[in-house]
Amino acid sequence: MNESEYPIWPPGLWRRIVLRPNPGWIGAALEDDMHCFHLRIDHADGIVTKVAARGVRTPWTACTGAPDFIAKSLTGEPLSEVANRDPAQQCTHLFDLAILAAAHAQDTQATTFDMRVADRVDGRTTATLEKNGEERLRWQLNETMIEGPDRFAGLDIKRVSKWKHGFPADVAEWSTLLRRAIFISGARIYEPQMDKRAVEMGPGRMGVCFNYQLPQAEESIPIFDRREFSMTPHEPLEGLDPEAVFEAMA
User: Fold this and answer.
1) Could you tell me how many helices (H) and strands (E) the chain has, helices first?
2) Strand bridging mode 36-44 / 25-31
3) Are 6 and 118 in contact (CB under 8 A)?
4) How far is C-alpha 99 from the chain's CA centre?
5) What is the CATH architecture assignment of 14-110?
């Protein structure tokens, strides 16, 4: 494998996630080119006692209903069971954030994840994940197949949920986060059909997430609010005051 055959970032997608654990609660925020969400989970004795969430920037109008839905779904659940809810009923990105926050609810240190995915050339890309500024994963991919480095070569990111268990728990978590960033990176070149409701986007999309569930899919229309972080001075979640934002969500 010749790494020079794979484009490197920038340009490309940049997704950042911040986690701020505190006694009895954890705050989490996510931003990338197309999405921005804030989440707070309060907990006691391993049980979710309250969930507050905000869709700060979403790609569809119906997505704004996802925060209330996830709050009702997760309140009263054990932290250990958050990941076992039906993902198709939830906003994909808010649910991913909730799973991550629940897994780190007992942490004592803040964590920042940065995922970067280079814009593809002939189906190839390079994707990286940093934790607190230190690179932990770097994959060279051709479509959905990882071609390097050797420890991941031959693995298909569409099957991460199966093969991740062969790696240490932290690598499994990072792989899940990086996979999501790779999957959404193609939206950078997608031009939304502003005149179509979600229900008109084709049967293949129906039922895949909160936006594509009935009845909201019948009214949901696109919101074109895309940001560019790779070729500008701006960064995801810049200006976020985690303590102020998350405390205000109590």
Assistant:
1) 5, 8
2) antiparallel
3) yes
4) 10
5) 2-Layer Sandwich (3.30)
The domain spans of the chain are 3-10+123-188, 14-110
- The C-alpha atoms of residue 167 and residue 148 are separated, in whole angstroms, by 16
Structure confidence by residue, pLDDT tens digits, 197-219? 999 998 889 999 999 999 999 99
The model's pTM is: 0.95
- pLDDT at residue 193 in the model: 83
Which tokens hold the place of 161?
């949920």
| Structure confidence by residue, pLDDT tens digits, 24-37 | 999 999 999 999 99
- Say if residue 192's pLDDT is above 80: no
For 231, other C-beta atoms within 10 Å of its C-beta total: 9
Residues 6+ positions from 243 with CB-CB distance below 8 Å = 20
